[in-house]
UniProtKB/TrEMBL annotation:
Name of the protein described by the UniProt record: Quercetin 2,3-dioxygenase
Domain of life from the UniProt record: Bacteria
Family the entry assigns: Belongs to the pirin family.
Domain Quercetin 2,3-dioxygenase C-terminal cupin: 145-228
Cited SUPFAM superfamilies: RmlC-like cupins (SSF51182)
Domain Pirin N-terminal: 8-118
Amino acid sequence: MKIRRSNERGYADHGWLRSYHTFSFANYMDPNHMGYRALRVINEDRVAPGHGFGAHPHRDMEIISYVLEGEMEHKDNMGNGEVMRPGDVQRMSAGTGVLHSEFNHSKENGLHFLQIWVETAQRGIQPSYEQKHFPTAERQGQWRLVLSPDGRDGSVSVNQDMNLYASLLGAGDQVAAPPSRYAWLHVVKGAVEVNGETLATGDAAAFTPDEPFELTCTDASEVLLFDLA
């Protein structure tokens, strides 16, 4: 198990935006943390009320958004326009090119979300978009599949050989890892114990295929688990 501590991440403060970078991104460059397998970006962003990212382009990348607090307004040149809230998972396959914007939908409250980039399995595909809501009850005390290559079990589909699981845990809850190959565990909030190590908010850990683990929650937590080829 290789641990990536929250306070080791890159950080950028743009006033209206405060962002922590798990992997190298923009002006933060660390050759030891360029990504993990197909996982390329995990940015934890806090956006001030009434602010956001104006229209900007992407291509040949799977872009996943996961809202933690507040409301995020999404618009793109494919004609999609939705507001994301906690429990929503959004995937945008940039493919041959897409233009989109992301704004804090509220003029009073902050927005806190994760933006995740995953390398695409096939370049030059037609851009596409999908968003689904996963109720608290489906994630409470268990792993809920929220992203998969084939959209199975009601998950959002993604153009890569990977699965993403989400879980909400109460103190004392224990969950074994779902079947995985290479795994990346990201603690969204709270604190958990894994293989004798405590992981707190923003911490992450990487696992190899022959490395089983069990997770015990020590404080009310939200965690994401990436299963990667």
